[in-house]
Amino acid sequence: MTNRARVSLLLAPSLIILCVLFFGGFLLGIMQSLNYMPMIGLDSPNFEAYKMMFTDEQFFQSLLLTLWISIVTTVLVIVLSIVSALALRNTFVGKRLVNFLYQFPITVPYVVITIGTLFLFSQSGSVARIAYNMGIISDQSMFPELVNDKFGLGIIFVYVWKQVPFIGVIVLSILQSMGNNFEELARSLGANKWQSFRHVLLPIIIPGILPASIITFAYTFGSYEVPFLLGRPYPAVLSILAYRLYDNVDLNARPEAMAMAVFMTAFLVVLVFLYKKLLNKASGRD
Amino acid sequence: MTNISLRNLTKVYEGTKEPAVENFNLEIEPGELVAFLGPSGCGKTTTLKMIAGLHSVTGGDVLFNGERVNDIKPENREVVMVYQNYLLFPYMNIAENVGFGLKMRHVPKDEIARRVDEILKLVKLEGYGPRKPNQMSGGQKQRVALARALIIRPKILLLDEPLSNLDAHLRDEMRELILTIHKEFDVTTVFVTHDQEEAVLLADRIALIFEGKLQQFSRSEDFYERPASKRIADFFGNANYIAGEKKDNKVATALGTFAVREDLKVPDGRVTLIIRPESIELGKNGENSFETKIARRIYMGTYIRYRIDMDGAFWDVVGDPHYNVDYDEDKTAGFTLPKNKIWLLEGDK
Ligand SMILES: Nc1ncnc2c1ncn2[C@@H]1O[C@H](COP(=O)(O)OP(=O)(O)OP(=O)(O)O)[C@@H](O)[C@H]1O
Ligand SMILES: [Mg+2]
User: Fold this and answer.
1) What is the B41 CA–ligand 1 centroid distance (Å)?
2) What is the rounded average pLDDT of the residues B316-341?
3) What is the dihedral angle through the alpha carbons of B220, B222, B224, B230, rounded to the nearest 10 degrees?
4) Which position has the higher pLDDT, A92 or B100?
5) Contacts of B99 in chain A (CB under 8 A)
6) Does A4 share its domain with A119?
7) Which of B9, B13, B194 to mutate to test the pocket of ligand 1 (most atoms within 8 A of CB)?
8) Whole-number Å distance between alpha carbons of B159 and A38
9) In a domain, A70, yes or no
10) Which residues have CB under 8 Å from B1's CB, separation 6+?
């Protein structure tokens, strides 16, 4: 047996499971989204569900909210991870402790920090109570809406808190592997601190964290439990809206739920495709 | 043109005890080409970086033309450093790399383009502008790095081991280029090397550094003829030593008494007499001659090398390249130490 054949054979079991679960499920989803469910007698596919989705006011509000949360989260994660990595790069007293605390969120499950955020920052939460007891606010309802709010602040907070260390660690390792020499060189060629960051550090860091940032975006775009606990019922993010339709007693809502799921998947696939193209173009210049 | 003075310059890195550079005092003349020479880890790069303002100084001062620059930011010093591993910005093409310093100074684009072309021509890389760094050879990268430094017309050029990553024939080429550039730009230049021969070939003066301390700063001849210590003498080629007692321009040794020059500023008492193998004359030619046994005769291809017995120690002597005189092993032969080639160090350790 050739080496190649052996490798394929060894990979086959897991690949088959992956294909059946993912592509099989995905295919079923597409079929259902097209109103094609031969088992219950629907055997003429159509685009009704998609029409319904694209004329649904709720869908667009959810899409907007989802995009807002994903984009703000991704931008904040990128900015904060770079800033924090730059700060952590220098040696200082207590660096080991700070490093540990910095990477701590990676180990905390989403559900834990989500519920923690709820307890801490809701209007009936600990921070509001402390503020009330200290007389900073006269009523707990005067505490600003930080969770279950219109702008998804609580949701964004949780995502950022969890994901900054992930990307920050990548930035740190990029910074460490490049050392100080490039920046020093730039300075001696006449770049000030900002210029050497802008023209030397950033162009090296950004390509290194782009893949991880795409993952951040995709994860935030599709995830369910954080907005479920920290979001408003209306408008809800797409994943929640889709699940609600899926879970609806009215079986007729199911195709639209599937259409939404297909839409989200297609959106992310297109995004990754564009990213790949961008990357190829950038590295094609090399 | 700019003069550089280092006054009691000291650097202790954070978290270390031993100074990387200790109490340097050095005056570099405007337009001079100076080599920092020393073994790995002796503090050459550290000193360069303090001159460039890239590392802060722990003590002492750096002065350009008499003005203290300790607190002037690197980007305002007009001192450019060229690194051993070139450090071309990988995501920029050659033209962008070379034009970097001008872009940082907000020079208009068309002027940058013109000056980049001009300087690429000077380093013989005409037309390479659109290439990426990874499409260039080591020697070409080094020339790009030089062009990138020179385009901003620095007052001081600092080269950190510019030749050590190049193979032999590229090194010759690069040496020529450095000399040409130094002449053309009239820029005060300091380059770092751990190769004694390279320093001698290129530099007007050499600063020899051991373990963070400046040992000697002088013309290269002086390192051969007037070394400040045995260690320096050894760093620059071979040297022969014999201990003796100096009195009135005469040194009494186990092998006889030798006359020395009157102008040697070594007080009477215990001394070490130094002479280079190539300075010893074959045969007894009057003053300062002696006889001893040839312990070994070593054929070196273009000349003969003798090892002669000096009262238990052995000296190297370079023989006659024309073989007019040729001694056999285990025979006794005559030698002469020319008075003006003898150098003395205080003490006999
Ligand atoms: N950033 C730093 N932090 C701590 N110690 C350092 C740092 N940079 C250099 N050193 C130490 O300072 C000493 C001098 O280093 P330096 O780089 O100046 O040596 P060098 O003469 O340039 O050596 P080489 O020929 O190997 O380049 C060394 O002992 C080195 O370990
Ligand atoms: Mg060095």
Assistant:
1) 5
2) 86
3) -120
4) B100
5) none
6) no
7) B13
8) 77
9) yes
10) B30, B31, B155, B186, B187, B188
Closest among B197, B204, B230 to B346, alpha carbons compared: B230
- Cα–ligand 2 centroid distance for B35 (angstroms): 13
On average, the pLDDT of chain B sits at: 91
Query: Of the given ranges (B9-18, B27-36, B301-310), which has the lowest mean pLDDT?
Result: B301-310
Is the minimum distance from the CB of B19 to ligand 1 under 6 angstroms? Answer: no
- Residues facing residue B10 across a β-bridge: B59
What structural domains does chain B harbor? 4-225 (3.40.50.300), 238-346 (2.40.50.100)
User: Residue B207 pLDDT > 90, yes or no?
Assistant: yes
pLDDT of residue A52: 87
Where in the sequence is the domain holding A5, given as residue range(s)?
Answer: 1-33
Please list the ranges in chain A whose pLDDT falls under 70.
Answer: 1, 282-286
The answer, yes or no, to whether residue B254 has pLDDT greater than 60, is: yes
CA distances (Å), origin B231, targets A195, B29, B193, B228: 46, 27, 18, 8
Indicate if A67 and A25 belong to the same structural domain: no
pTM: 0.81
| A53 and A102 belong to one structural domain | yes
pLDDT at B347: 85
CA of A190 to the centre of ligand 2 (A): 22
Q: Going edge to edge, which strands form the sheet with B67-68?
A: B21-28, B4-11, B59-64, B67-68
Measured distance CA(A250)–CA(A254) in Å, rounded:
8
Same domain, A149 and A257: yes
Ligand 1 contact, B194 CB (< 6 A): yes
- Of residues A91, A182, A187, nearest to B75 (C-beta): A187
Does residue A17 form part of some domain? yes
